[in-house]
Amino acid sequence: MYFIIERTFGLLDSKSAELLQDTTWNIMFYSHILLGGFALMIGWAQFSKKFRTKHIKWHRRIGKAYIIAALISGISSLYIAHFATGGIISMIGFLSLGVIWLFTTIMAYKAIKNGEIVKHQKFMIFSYAACFAAVTLRIWLPILTATFQDFIFAYRIVAWLCWVPNIIVAFFLTRRLTA
After folding, report:
1. How is the chain split into domains, by residue range?
2. pTM given for the model
3. Whole-angstrom Cα distance, residue 28 to residue 37?
4. Which residues of 50-71 are buried (b: 16+ CB within 10 A; e: fewer)?
């Protein structure tokens, strides 16, 4: 949508014309949405045990692509979070999400390099839970906006609600994994 129609809708409608003209912000914004979307698209396939077992080379290739996409998108998210709609509450929520996404992705990479498969799996579950915040944000935002009739208020809530429950679910999923 951001490439097809005028940028005066949804979230971008809340941004100043000056920010929308800023080259650095645009590079970071589009890096974040393109590579984050790519990570979201390819990441889910990595959780299939059947796929991993049968196609380990593809699992590794896709995993490397996910790591690169997540790192670039995550770094970009830290920059654009400073311009989050809703002020400091939204900014801290999205900065926290970006830090968690980067940390868990890096730890998953380190774990697999050290041959710690279960630790790698656990951190990747957390990483993808953070990545999946893009989906949960898009589910919650219209519901909260309709409920409160206030986009800014809803956005402040969704800056946290899009990822905190995902991380809690990841916590319970990873408790079941053992070496």
Report:
1. 21-175
2. 0.91
3. 14
4. eebeeeeeebeebbeebbebbb
Residue 74 scores a pLDDT above 70: yes
Burial (0-12, 13-18, 19+ Cβ within 10 Å), 92: middle
Closest C-alpha to 31, from 80, 103, 91: 80
Angle, alpha carbons 85-89-92 (nearest 5°)? 95
Residue 106 pLDDT exceeds 90: yes
Contact 129, 170 (CB under 8 A): yes
Cβ atoms within 10 Å, residue 29: 22
Model pLDDT for residues 1-47, shown as the tens digit of each residue: 555 555 555 577 778 889 988 999 999 999 999 999 999 999 998 98
